[in-house]
Specification:
Uridine Diphospho-n-acetylenolpyruvylglucosamine Reductase, domain 2; Hydroxyacid dehydrogenase; about 475 residues; 5-stranded antiparallel beta sheet; Alpha-Beta Plaits; Uridine Diphospho-n-acetylenolpyruvylglucosamine Reductase, domain 3; catalytic activity; alpha+beta; Oxid_FAD_bind_N; FAD binding; 4 domains; FAD-bd_PCMH_sub2
Length: about 475
């Protein structure tokens, strides 16, 4: 990298002046206290420094900034809601970079009901996009625990998954087109609403999942769906992950495309939530080793609750479930989901946690978890496996909490060792070390050991072509 050094204040000051001309001084944060929230990721694993934080208000302003940064070889770190968990949105410690926050770019550019499409700017909060769709009588199904603060641009940059992938797919599947600014300031205007377009490469998929290393997404056309007329939710006690997989198979047989969520939670995870999160209670009178949160949706207002009850009766007859509670109201449904959504946060109160966002083939999940538990017990006696996630798409957050009473720092010092154990088992099952959070800084050095060499060569070739000076999110992904 040949950009200026913060030790050369004249160059830095001149650059700030030029940014001020582009954006207006009030949209440039250069004071340490003002920049601080943008320079650390949520878990505190990565702290960075920056020359400044820029808050452009339009695609054209983003383009002007990148044109200048490309000319001056100034590194750029794009940032949405700063909710990422792999350090992809955090600058390094050099102080050379600028952070481009898209938080001002929150506009709804339009809804086309005939096309079932909605065009939004990248800084729109995910919950706001959901609300806009709902106001139009439609559903935008991407749903994450962080949906109140994460942004559409960040969701696309990381190809977010969430709880509805089993029915609707991940962020890539929910996107028809994108607008993105390239490293040299050119604007790729790909905001197509077409579902069929075979005029060459599907360029939008270069930017979705690239974590801001190939371009900065500034707007997107999102797919909308009919809003369900009925939703039925059950919190189900299970004897084992194998029983959960059998229940999922049965649900697919009996309910087909009506399954919109199937989340797996261990008893230890539920206990963490009950101990540390307000307004939570155990939905069932007796503890079970595992739980599933099953949700069905239908376009018909009638019969869904009965179908869910019939499914649970069939499952009980086959010995797959221990007990179940069916939500009788919207509030109770929200209560069930709160038990799932608070899992990650609840772990903070139990000391150090070494976290893994992995996926394996759905059919192998039970065997995978058995192997991981045995391997961890041998390597780190007392460490507590808290494995939860999206059973329907094979994505398990295979988190490991420190032994009770252990030294937090000493446990976290074993991060690489525990990673190697979990990721080694993932590899044996042909899985992925990053199912939905991305690579960022956290997993960058692991990528060469798990990625096909030709795939890495192609990724590097794309990076060199679209960002020859390496200014876009340097040090991330590759």
């Amino acid at each position: 990298m040949t950009g200026f050094s913060p030790d050369e204040p004249a160059q830095g000051s001149a650059l700030l002046d030029r940014f001020g001309t582009m954006l207006g001084a009030r949209h440039i944060l250069a004071n340490a206290d003002d920049m601080a929230p943008y320079l650390v990721e949520p878990r505190g694993l990565y702290h960075g420094r920056a020359l400044c934080v820029l808050r452009p208000g339009s695609t054209e302003e983003v383009a002007a900034v990148l044109t200048l940064c490309n000319e001056t070889r100034t590194p750029v770190v794009p940032q949405g809601g700063n909710t990422g968990l792999v350090g992809g949105q955090t600058p390094d410690a050099s102080g050379r970079a600028i952070v481009i926050s898209l938080e001002r770019m929150r506009a709804l550019r339009g809804i086309d009901l005939a096309s079932n499409a909605m065009t939004v700017e990248a800084g729109m909060i995910l919950a706001a996009a959901q609300a806009e769709a709902e106001r139009a009588g439609r559903l935008f199904p991407l749903s994450l625990a962080s949906e109140g603060s994460c942004t559409i641009g960040g969701n696309l940059a990381a190809n977010a998954g969430g709880t509805s992938v089993i029915a609707y797919g991940n962020a890539r599947d929910l996107t028809l087109g994108v607008e993105a600014v390239l490293a040299d300031g050119r604007i790729y205007r790909g905001l197509s609403k077409l579902k069929k377009d075979n005029t060459g490469y599907d360029l939008k998929d270069l930017f979705i999942g690239s974590e801001g290393t190939l371009g900065i997404i500034t707007a997107a056309v999102l797919k909308l769906f009919p809003r369900p007329a009925a939703v039925a939710t059950a919190f189900i006690a299970l004897p084992s992950p194998a029983a959960a997989l059998a229940l999922l198979d049965l649900a697919r047989e009996k309910c087909g495309g009506q399954i919109t969520a199937f989340e797996l939670t261990p008893r230890i995870g539920l206990e963490f939530v009950l101990a540390h999160c307000a307004r939570t209670r155990d939905p069932l009178p007796h503890a079970a080793p595992w739980y599933a949160l099953l949700e069905l949706s239908s376009q018909s207002p009638d019969g869904l609750d009965e179908r869910l009850l019939q499914l649970l009766e069939h499952a009980a007859d086959r010995g797959l479930i221990c007990d179940a509670a069916v939500a009788a109201s919207l509030d109770q449904r929200k209560t069930f989901w709160r038990l799932r959504d608070e899992l990650s946060d609840a772990q903070r109160h139990e000391g150090g946690s070494i976290k893994h966002d992995v996926s394996v083939p759905v059919a192998d999940i039970a065997r995978f978890l058995t192997e991981v538990e045995a391997a961890l017990a041998a390597a780190a006696p007392g460490a507590r496996l808290v494995a939860f996630g999206h059973l329907g798409d094979g994505n398990i957050h295979c988190n490991v909490s420190q032994p009770i009473g252990a030294d937090r720092a000493a446990f976290l010092d074993r991060w690489d060792e525990i990673n190697a154990i979990v990721h080694g088992i993932v590899a044996r099952y042909g899985g992925s070390i990053s199912a939905e959070h991305g690579i960022g800084q956290l997993k960058r050095d692991l990528l060469p050991s798990v990625k096909d060499p030709v795939a890495l060569e192609l990724m590097r070739a794309l990076k060199a072509t679209l960002d020859p000076h390496g200014i876009l999110n340097p040090g991330k992904v590759i």
